[in-house]
Amino acid sequence: xxxxxxxxxxxxxxxxxxxxxxxxxxxxxxxxxxxxxxxxxxxxxxxxxxxxxxxxxxxxxxxxxxxxxxxxxxxxxxxxxxxxxxxxxxxxxxxxxxxxxxxxxxxxxxxxxxxxxxxxxxxxxxxxxxxxxxxxxxxxxxxxxxxxxxxxxxxxxxxxxxxxxxxxxxxxxxxxxxxxxxxxxxxxxxxxxxxxxxxxxxxxxxxxxxxxxxxxxxxxxxxxxxxxxxxxxxxxxxxxxxxxxxxxxxxxxxxxxxxxxxxxxxxxxxxxxxxxxxxxxxxxxx
Length: 286
Known about the structure:
Elements (H helix, E strand, L loop, with lengths): L2 H9 L6 H21 L8 E5 L3 E11 L2 E11 L2 H9 L10 E4 L4 E4 L5 E4 L4 E6 L15 E2 L17 E2 L5 H10 L15 H8 L5 H14 L2 E2 L6 E2 L5 E9 L8 E10 L3 E10 L6
Antiparallel strand pairs: 1-2, 1-4, 2-3, 3-7, 4-5, 6-7, 8-9, 10-11, 12-13, 13-14
């Protein structure tokens, strides 16, 4: 939703009913889709930036300092001005792993260290985001040993007659698979752990937004640390991924409730790495 319309709608709940808003959102998304596809100058803020778990805008990163990022945006993809204001007002009660900024173009994200500062410009918004320092990653060669369930989709006996295990760099595909295949909210004692890829696949399959949405989620799991209240450990779910270079979802190869995704990632201790991994992502009707 653009700057002027979002303000007008906030002031007129009777005129803008739920059905009208749905139609406006659909029309707006189609308009933005055309602008992005055609490279229109009016769509200069055309890459996804997420602020918290519920807000995605079309924006650009305009400034970076040690403890502050600055972005400009003119349209919301999800959420609206009211949700952005609410996010700021509730900042100190929001779980730490949901206070973040993710920048698709950069391939990185940061935890927020304080509430944002929002300025309204003539045709856009400027947001000044206080950020924490980047979270250290594990060297991929130091990934801990785990049972190997990735190679055959189940436990198996290796050539030595033992249950197969995996560790170090060889364990990276399994770490990515496990993290992205865990559906956010399905683990009762860890309600914020897991990914939203299943939700994004349901909402955006067949659209130009799917790759961008999945990339945002991989950035979140790569850069935003999760605090385990039981073990008291703090870690990034993807452990050794420093930067997300590219994501290509391949929905045409969806099979057996698994969604193939091609990852191009910058890995601590290795460098740029490309790998196709099929992530468990059952459709809502399966």
